[in-house]
Specification:
Length: 501
């Protein structure tokens, strides 16, 4: 995946979401504001109609002005207001006097406009009148030959001093074309559009910065992954960004650390195998060549053949250990669980190694808390673990030393411990003793084993779901294994004839 492609797709996704949200916001805002603006315009027309109705009521009291044939102040004010309504709303006004059945037209020049040539019919007027007499205010949209019209009608009232009530004396009608009212909100389109564009730009910038912040660690992680694919396991991802990114980078770095460790183990394994194989092969080749070309005198040929035989056995043992470890790690070996006496297995291991024990004059101590002590495990596999631990104890215990073997039960678990009086294991070597080919003597001294025994033991115990561990002691070395407690019933298996170092 290309870096630019990932960033572009993420940014385009953000932009699409932003534009969609901006479009929805624009539509909702526009329709809401349009409705509010129309309502405001109609309320304004109502207010103008109410004021005209009030002035029309006052007009009837200006008898003095009419007596001299002059226009009253109220009439002048009504004409001025009608002109303002025409200028602001392009509307005309009709005042109906119910008492004299008289109509007065204001803004008659409006009626000269083709689009405004619409007057209520007798039926419409009668319907309006029936509602106005009840004191209602009317806002209605009607269709004319020239288009839709908005009509606002309010009652004209006059107080009665005799009956102390309001009397409907007429009505005021203000009418204008619908497009005149609609035109008042067209400027909202630009206002809302400018606001939407500004918000979208701000959101785009924020999305760009956010996507950069999101993709930067991903791009760095991709680069590190490519380096690892090329064999460079030192690459690491920067731990930055959101909490999820931090978690992902941390997991990636942990994976990289494990891969680096495994790669180093693989290289060490290859180097160790090469070293361990080269030593016996070199010895075999050297002595065989000396026998062939006659450089080894006849009296030393028997000794040379003995060395070749020993190195052949050592080579075979190494190969067998490698095959056994390989089967263990590839899960090719299946376990055959049975109930058997672990104490009996320990005794057989001691008897099998009696020759080496007598050569070094080693003292064997056994402390079996329960005898017999049954465990539920693979008898052959556990026998191999016991042989490996016993061989190591004999190998590193000095002559006339002591080896202690104990078994004990705790709840549903049986623990076997082997302790020797040797030189012990240094603290710096303790974390690595279960590593393949690891030896405390870094020179890999010939005859000191292959360094695979404890690694095989650990893998066997892991397959059993149990543990093997090094126990801290003051002198010598001590190892402990755990096993599931068994029962007396169950078959028994003879120990394997193979033992691993």
């Amino acid at each position: 995946m290309r870096r630019g492609s990932m960033f572009s797709r993420l940014l385009l996704g953000f932009l699409a979401i932003i534009l969609l949200c901006a479009g929805i916001l624009f539509s909702l805002s526009f329709f809401h504001l349009r409705s509010a603006r129309i309502e405001s315009r109609m309320q304004a027309l109502k207010t103008q109609a109410r004021e005209m109705a009030y002035l029309a009521t006052q007009l009837s009291t200006d008898t003095l002005s009419r007596a001299f044939g002059q226009a009253s102040t109220t009439e002048k004010l009504m004409k001025w207001k009608a002109d303002r309504v025409y200028q602001d709303y392009n509307a005309y006004i009709i005042v109906y006097d119910l008492r004299g059945n008289q109509r007065t037209y204001y803004n008659e020049k409006t009626l000269q406009d083709e689009s405004m040539r619409y007057l209520p019919s007798q039926e419409e007027y009668a319907a309006y009148l029936s509602q106005v007499i009840q004191g209602q205010e009317i806002v209605v949209q009607t269709d004319s030959a020239t288009g839709p019209m908005f009509t606002v009608i309010v009652p004209q009232t006059q107080s009665s001093l005799i009956h102390n009530r309001q009397t409907i004396t007429g009505l005021v009608l203000i009418q204008t074309a619908a497009q005149t009212v609609h035109a008042s909100y067209r400027d909202l389109v630009w206002q809302v559009a400018v606001a939407a564009i500004a918000i979208s730009l701000a959101a785009v910038i924020a999305a760009f910065l956010f996507s950069r912040r999101m993709t930067r660690p991903l791009i760095a992680m991709e680069k590190a992954a490519n380096q690892m694919a090329g064999g460079d396991f030192s690459a690491r991802a920067p731990e930055e960004g959101t909490r999820e990114m931090l978690s992902l980078a941390s997991s990636f770095n942990q994976m990289a650390e494990k891969l680096s460790t495994q790669e180093q183990s693989r290289r060490d394994f290859v180097a160790n195998v090469s070293h361990e194989l080269r030593s016996p092969i070199t010895s075999i080749q050297g002595f065989a060549q000396g026998l062939l070309d006659g450089t080894i005198p006849p009296e030393e040929q028997h000794q040379s053949l003995s060395i070749i035989t020993d190195e052949t056995h050592r080579l075979s043992k190494l190969i067998q250990s490698l095959l056994s470890l390989s089967r263990m790690e590839s899960d090719e070996t299946s376990l055959n669980f049975t109930n058997f006496d672990i104490n009996e297995r320990v005794r057989r291991v001691i008897i099998a190694g009696i020759t080496a024990l007598e050569e070094k004059e080693l003292e064997i101590e056994t402390d079996f808390q329960a005898d017999p002590c049954y465990v539920f495990a693979d008898a052959d596999q556990i026998h191999q673990v016991l042989v490996n631990l016993m061989d190591n104890a004999v190998k590193f215990t000095p002559p006339k030393g002591r080896i202690a073997l104990t078994t004990r039960e705790e709840n549903d678990t049986v623990y076997f411990t082997i302790r020797d009086s040797g030189q012990g294991i240094l603290p710096e070597d303790a974390p690595h003793i279960f590593d393949r080919f690891y030896k405390a003597d870094k020179a890999h001294t010939t005859g000191k084993g292959t360094g695979l025994g404890l690694a095989i033991c650990q893998r066997i115990m892991e397959k059993h779901g149990q543990h093997i561990r090094l126990i801290p002691v003051q002198t010598g070395a001590a190892f402990e294994i755990s096993l599931k407690k068994g029962t007396k019933t169950g078959g028994k298996h003879a120990p394997s004839s193979e033992s691993q170092d």
